[in-house]
Design a protein that fits this description.
Blueprint: H1 2-38, H2 63-72, H3 94-108
Bound molecules: heme C.
The site of heme C has 26 residues, from α1, α2 and α3.
Length: 110
């Protein structure tokens, strides 16, 4: 019983640590690659960029869809500006994009 409780605590603690590591990585990458268009507050630094803080906005989509859209880029119908694949930084790995998504959700998600 005690051992099980300890095990559960350890598992949840490592989840929290993993999340915090992702957020730190995501924040760093966001500052290097995404901030020019999306701005420090996620609302968009230039016209045509999606407001990531909007409730029911882009972050309401599933992780799968957002992973795909960040990785491949996208242009919604009627939108005046396209999001470039990986924000124009081809060196980003899948793990980097995943960390960015964790950061976006923690920083701008509602
Ligand atoms: C050159 C400017 C630019 C850069 C750099 C950029 N974005 Fe975007 N991003 C856009 C634009 C423009 C849109 C909206 C596209 C549309 O709606 O057609 C967008 C949309 C998005 C969306 C919403 C996608 C959806 O499914 O609606 C996410 C999430 C996103 N960007 C994340 C990122 C991340 C993470 C980075 C950095 C790796 C990044 N962006 C870098 C311009 C940029």
């Amino acid at each position: 019983m005690r051992f099980a409780t300890l095990l559960m605590l350890m598992v949840s603690a490592s989840w929290v640590l993993a999340d915090e590591a992702s957020i730190a990585t995501g924040k760093k990458l966001y500052g290097q690659t995404c901030i020019a268009c999306h701005g420090a507050n996620g609302r968009g630094a230039i016209p045509g960029v999606a407001d990531l803080t909007k409730r029911d906005g882009a972050l309401a989509k599933s992780d799968d869809e957002l992973m795909k859209n960040i990785t491949k880029g996208l242009q919604n119908p009627g939108s005046m500006l396209a999001m470039p694949a990986k924000g124009g930084n081809p060196t980003l790995s899948d793990a980097d994009v995943q960390a960015l998504l964790v950061y976006l959700r923690s920083e701008f998600g509602s």
